[in-house]
Amino acid sequence: MTPSADDIRRAAALLESGRLVAFPTETVYGLGADAEDPAAVAQIYAAKGRPSTHPLIVHLAPEADLGQWAREVPEAAKKLIAAFWPGPLTLIMKKSLQVPDAATGGQDTIGLRCPSHPVAQALLRAFKQGRGGVAAPSANRFGHVSPTTAQHVKDEFRDDIGDSGRIGMVLDGGQSQVGIESTIIDLSRWETHGPVLLRPGHIGADAIAAVLGVEPRLPDAAAPRASGTLEAHYAPLAPVALVSSGELVATVAQLHAVRKRVVLLCHTPHSLPTGIAQISLPSTPEGYAHGLYAALRVLDGERADLILVEAPPAAAAWQGVNDRLRRAAHDSSGVIERLLDGD
Ligand code: TXA
Ligand code: MG
Question: Which CATH superfamily is domain 240-340 in?
Answer without folding.
Answer: Threonylcarbamoyl-AMP synthase, C-terminal domain (3.40.50.11030)
